[in-house]
């Protein structure tokens, strides 16, 4: 069965270009021109992945709003921002709202397709996890791989797909430092440009449950590790 990708882009020529390229790669594509149209479609049927522009028509922040609305419908759905806006503020804002990636429109089509493929590989890897890895427990942490559900001290921590995979990668080998390259490989990220932002957001989510949370340790010049209990 073909995977369905939603493109939300207000410029018709750009929207058609992305839709054509993704269709050629064997994806089913649903293209939407604005936030209202996209949400109406999402409430009927969720795509397998969404690619969203930040500015949508007369809504300069429409993509950010759409991301929040879409994330409320599905915690696991992969979301990629694809925008001409490249400020650090916009990138951090997009990731904070729950996007899995933030790309600028000067990215090449092969690079965009690689990012999309990487997210789908991560979903497949989670789905194919071995039975003995269905549940991972490290002290106060409990990860249910089949449900993509995380708990800390018995309380749910609402992680996106990327966040869950990064926590899983670190927690599998507590005390071992994961370099940025290793995190890129294990978490199926194409580059390390957003790793720091993801880690910061993960820490904030755990801290919201437990303000004493300090299980993710930065190792200067090397990477990150999950602290031994």
From TrEMBL:
Pfam family, one: Trans_reg_C
CDD domains: trans_reg_C
Keywords: DNA-binding, Phosphoprotein, Transcription, Transcription regulation, Two-component regulatory system
Residue ranges flagged as DNA-binding region: 133-228
Domain Response regulatory, residue spans: 4-120
InterPro entries registered for this protein in UniProt: CheY-like_superfamily (IPR011006), OmpR/PhoB-type_DNA-bd (IPR001867), Response_regulator (IPR022305), Sig_transdc_resp-reg_C-effctor (IPR016032), Sig_transdc_resp-reg_receiver (IPR001789), WalR-like (IPR039420), WH-like_DNA-bd_sf (IPR036388)
GO molecular function: phosphorelay response regulator activity; transcription cis-regulatory region binding
GO BP of this protein: regulation of DNA-templated transcription
Keyword Phosphoprotein included in the entry's annotation: yes
GO cellular component: cytosol; protein-DNA complex
4-aspartylphosphate modifications at: 53
Keyword Phosphoprotein set for record: yes
Domain OmpR/PhoB-type as annotated: residue spans: 133-228
NCBIfam families tied to this protein: marine_sort_RR
Protein name (record): Proteobacterial dedicated sortase system response regulator
Record organism: Pseudothauera lacus
Taxonomic lineage of the native organism: Bacteria, Pseudomonadati, Pseudomonadota, Betaproteobacteria, Rhodocyclales
């Amino acid at each position: 069965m073909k995977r369905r990708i939603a493109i939300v882009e207000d410029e018709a020529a750009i929207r058609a270009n992305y839709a054509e390229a993704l269709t050629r790669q064997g994806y089913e594509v649903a293209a939407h021109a604005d936030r209202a149209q996209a949400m109406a479609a999402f409430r009927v049927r969720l795509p397998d992945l969404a690619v969203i522009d930040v500015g949508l028509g007369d809504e300069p922040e429409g993509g950010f709003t759409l991301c929040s609305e879409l994330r409320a419908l599905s915690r696991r759905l992969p979301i990629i921002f694809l925008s001409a806006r490249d400020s650090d503020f916009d990138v951090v804002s997009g990731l904070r709202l729950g996007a899995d990636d933030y790309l600028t429109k000067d990215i090449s089509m092969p690079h965009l397709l690689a990012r999309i493929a990487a997210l789908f590989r991560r979903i497949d890897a989670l789905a194919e996890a071995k039975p003995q890895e269905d549940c991972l427990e490290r002290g106060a942490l409990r990860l249910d791989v089949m449900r993509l559900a995380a708990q800390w001290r018995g309380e749910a921590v609402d992680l996106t797909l990327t966040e869950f995979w990064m926590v899983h990668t670190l927690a599998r080998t507590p005390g071992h430092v994961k370099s940025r390259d290793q995190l890129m490989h294990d978490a199926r990220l194409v580059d390390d440009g957003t790793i720091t932002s993801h880690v910061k957001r993960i820490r904030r989510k755990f801290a919201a449950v437990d303000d004493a949370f300090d299980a993710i340790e930065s190792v200067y010049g090397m990477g990150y590790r999950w602290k031994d209990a």
